Amino acid sequence: MSLIGSIVSKILHPFGSSEAQAAEANTSSSKPSETQAQPSSGGGSAPASTPTSGGTSSGGSVDVEAVLNDLAAKNPQKLNWRTSIVDLMKLLDMDSSLHARQQLADELHYTGDKNDSASMNVWLHKQVIKKLEENGGKVPADLKD
């Protein structure tokens, strides 16, 4: 899976998180056998009824800020995911090295100087937030361009 795909998946479809467990618990009360099969399938082939009974309260869109704040609260490091692509990647247990960020920049078609990591990092953070919103995430106004 691409780096951006991993980021989007970990935030918008946080398997193993409390939201996903709550969704599974809601589904298990009505269909236990389907819920037991879902973790191995990764949720990609979930029954049609699952999205409507998911753990989101806003009609299917995932509150990106709530998911990331929850992860940050559970993390022993103080990570500033709101402005730092490095901290955002660390929060998601991803490689945040310069090489990994350069790969992410390639995936997102960054045309600037990848050796100017400060400029690239700011651009990457904005693009990741944009991709989260494009994929159905509810992004707070202060994180949008």
Shape: globular
Radius of gyration: 16 Å
> With helices defined by DSSP (H or I, 4 residues minimum), what is the helix count?
7
Major beta sheet, specifics?
2 strands, parallel
Count of strand segments: 2
SSE layout and pairings?
Layout: H1 3-12, H2 18-28, H3 32-41, E1 62-63, H4 64-74, H5 85-91, H6 98-107, H7 117-134, E2 137-138
Parallel strand pairs: 1-2
Helix pairs in contact: 2-3, 6-7
Short description:
The protein has seven helices and two strands; from the N terminus they run H-H-H-E-H-H-H-H-E. It has helices at residues 3-12, 18-28, 32-41, 64-74, 85-91, 98-107, 117-134; strands at 62-63, 137-138.
Can you tell me about this structure?
The chain is 53% helix and 3% strand. The chain has 145 residues and is mainly α. The protein has a two-stranded parallel ribbon with strand order 1-2. The chain is globular, with a radius of gyration of 16 Å.
Looking at this protein, list some descriptive labels.
globular, 7 helices, mainly alpha
